[in-house]
Protein 1
Amino acid sequence: MAFKHSFSHLTLSQVEQAARNNAIWCDTICRTHGAPGEFHADVWFNRNPVPRFYPNVVTLSNQRPLAAQLAHVQELVAAILPDHWAIKDSFGELDLAVLAFQLYFEAHWIWRAPSAPLPKVHDHSIQWVRLQDQPQLTQWESAWSGNPIGHSATPQPLLFLPALLVDPDVAFIAAYQGSALIAGAIANRTEPVVGLSNLFAPAEDSVSFWAGCVATAHATFPGLPLVGYESGVDLSHAEAVGFEKLQSLRVWGR
């Protein structure tokens, strides 16, 4: 169910490429749930309630007046969306407190050049794979969410739907030790870059699992930079496996 976008990336900065990749991923998730968003020159936004953990707005450029982006935000405010919707300010430039938003968190965009040396994966008992079927995907989401299948008192509906498995630009990466799925990530390819997101791994030896995710993403989509955003200890792990820290972003909630 690949959905193509025609953005020219020849003059985009690294941060703009990362932000557009992230917005396309947000739109891909929303589309699988029947709620696609809209792409404009400087912003992606969605007039519908979106799946949990995903924003209604992602800013795409800081080359135009901020008033244009704020106009889209005000349009959604006036639409009276359900509570708890969010805005990803990709360049950390919007003051949304005046519109009754609260700052959820700050992070940094990250970039890893395809020419950087691939990290070595030392534990050969770990098998890294790209998921192929729905049972694997259900197991992956359970491991990612920290809720073992059948053990949640209030089970959430699936966030990652099987239609994503047939999209050639999306790869769910998993690390198996025997039959146990112990780490993973999502890679989504846009024209110039590959986004790496939703990475989870055991707390012990996390850098090694980051290295495995990076190596698998590069092998799946060779020749393209990896992008994403992280904060805190995960940002340190990303830098340890060759990512460069770029500009900061902010996520606001209402």
Note: Residues 47 and 79 are 8 Å apart (CA to CA).
Protein 2
Amino acid sequence: MPVHAWLPTAMVAPTPVSALLHAVAVVKAGVFGIIRIVFYLYGTDVMDVLGLGLLLACLAAFTVIVANLYAMGQDNLKRLLAYSTINQLSFIILGAAVLSPRAAIGAMVHITYHGFMKITLFLCAGAILVVTGKKQVSQMAGIGRSMPITMTAFTIAAFGMCSIPPAAGFISKWYFCLGTIQADRVAFLLVAVTASVLDLVYFFPVVRTAFFDRANAVSGYETERPLYLFMLVPLSITGAFAIIFCLFPNTLYIFDLAKMAADNIFGGL
């Protein structure tokens, strides 16, 4: 922030496009580029001596908190997820800006972990829209009983955004917290904890509305509509990976690669 407005606006795109935009393609290229600039163009020593690390960390921390506050005011599900993306991307930048090995590991693995979690959330939002025509959180009362697999996958991915195990976001944010202590930047540890609490504040109402609010929910969405299986299988796979990355962080050697990069950047952990 304040150069964030394009991302919530882009959520009007079709859901598969939104999922790729927010989880994989454009936004991840941006944070990857910033990490490369911080660690390889400037380097940790120059960033620290010039105070650029602290400046970048403060800008990222501001965006993490404010994006969460914006998300709390959203009723449109995809727009809520868009502000969540702004928050999570800024968290990755914050992890790099802390300039410690463990925080860097947390930032780098979160690029992948967040991708699987966020694409799950957008695929779930798209499935809900296609099957029920509902876009607003306030319209989704009881939908968890009609679409239990979809909303279970959504809940798992939402847990990851809130740093709650057994979703992968817990691992990356845990390493970020260790990194703030390692770098003696405890203020940013408080930012991470506050951000996770705010994540919970706006994701919990979605889950509560879906599973616990009473409504005239129509049963059988996930079994009576054959075409829905083409949406159900992808979100189930990405949701499963959100758990697998928590239980087995080095799946696909992601964690080892992050450790190798951090060791190369900082000359040892």
Note: The mean pLDDT is 89.
Protein 3
Amino acid sequence: MNDFAFHKPQDVAGAVATAKKATEGKYLGGGQSLLPVMKLGLAAPTDLVAVAGLAALKGIKVDGKDLVIGAATTHAEVAESADVKRAIPGLASLAAHIGDAQVRNRGTLGGSLAHDDPSADYPAAVLALGATVVTDRRAIAAEAFFKGLYQTALAPDELITSVRFPIPEKAAYAKFPHPASKFALVGVMVAKGPGGVRVAVTGTGNGVFRAAALEKALAGTFTAAALDGVQVGTDGFASDGFASAEYRAHLVGVMARRAVAACG
């Protein structure tokens, strides 16, 4: 790991100003994504700007028809929140099954989304629920936020401050986890709300995406049986020692059925 300067700003404005001045600055939340990448030599920031302790980035509240979660809120806090369990129980369940206890108590919502690991769980929730990612300077719709493998719409010095999740009629997430990391070999989030049915898939290789064929089937009848016979293509799907592209495509259907069943 290369040398870097460590900064601990007092507020969001100070954090952004510090990142702007850095040659290659990175925001540090819980460190569960960035620090391993740095140890492997895949990232070498000149400056780390710690944001996990900023009060303005923490908290969970219901605001009208939205559930608003601060970017520095940990996975454990999302999983244990009474507000999340009431508004979007599927999101609480998703957070409860991220990694292990250490990861859940250190990792943050904003850090996960900014890193955009192609097997991460939160991107599926953000895309399926039609959430809005709020930064220090703008609001980014879910469809515009994810740009591919480890790529997002964020500018280099842009800081996620919160995420606004529209509260759906029902939603649930199901995943087939990697046996060691607990990342999703395949994860599927299903949501039904005023805007219709949305299905988002993670873990297949190139990042999160919406499954149009599954959405179309569920728009007619929102039951697991409605997905019988629906085929999922393998374009862009990864094959590795844990699952072939064909097996991942099969798992998409299985996880989608489980998620619909979990909606009740």
Note: Residues 196 and 247 are 28 Å apart (CA to CA).
Protein 4
Amino acid sequence: MASSSCAKTFTAVSSRKNETAFPLFVDICKLSAMELKIYLNEILRSYYPDAVENADGYLYAKGSMPILLTAHMDTVHKELVKDFYEHKTNEGMTIISSPQGIGGDDRCGIYMILRILSTTEMRPSILFCEDEEIGGIGSDKFCKSEYIEDLCSMKFLIELDRANAFDAVFYDDDNQTFHDWIERETGYKEAWGSFSDISNLSPACGIASVNFSCGYYNAHTTNEFVVMEEMFNTIDTVVDLLKKANETEQFEYIESTYTYNPYYTGYYYYQKPAIRMGILEITYYDPQLGKYQNWAREAETEDKGWADFFFEHTNICLDMISDYDYYEI
């Protein structure tokens, strides 16, 4: 669960079915998570001979640069992509969608990392995780492995698993120096997010991280679509950051003592509980029923509670949520 985009539409001036100028991206979207892991294992070994770990929950390649790039291999869609459409808009944008759900969350991130490897000589460390959509299970397994020590020497971590065009999400990290540096160097703006794999990785290794927009919209629905130009813009942005890797300071992960309520109160102080188990209660508007509903679930952390909620409610976005509370039990 890494996206925060409400329903968004586009107007096409032309469309074609099962034809595209981006065949690799579509091929990646058509693979099951298991097939994708097999494919990525072969690809990574071609770029990182003898440096790839194929483990339960993740694929990891240790690179020669002090930056980690990460994305996840699973999607929420139950059907594989069979048909797809490539649309052109009045603005000259290229849009790709599928009636089965294109799976831009997070096949965009996978494609973007492969694109960086194939078009540059840069070799950052790479982590492809399984089961992000059901609570970051793959990244949690990586955090418990010996390889988490490699991340302690990184300058910062980059995840490619965010909706929209120009978002930069930092989750529970409160290193404002890092936030300001990212905004200054990229032009992307800080946005709120509930959970993604770096929510596990950064606290485990002590290094700050950012999740960048990948150009997908309407995630977790069959109306999902990808704006290719926005995806390529983020690729260029990441490449520019990689070029600065050696001259950049190491950014420490600083756990936030504030959380953000995007609906009413803005930032407010809270104390991290010693036992991270509680109940997340959410009040949301259900457009199908035409009324507000209440949802409550026991969760190990608030982030994982939000991940459960959005996994179960694929038609709900942030604007439909009127109130929430997370309290320890």
Note: Residues 258-328 form one domain.
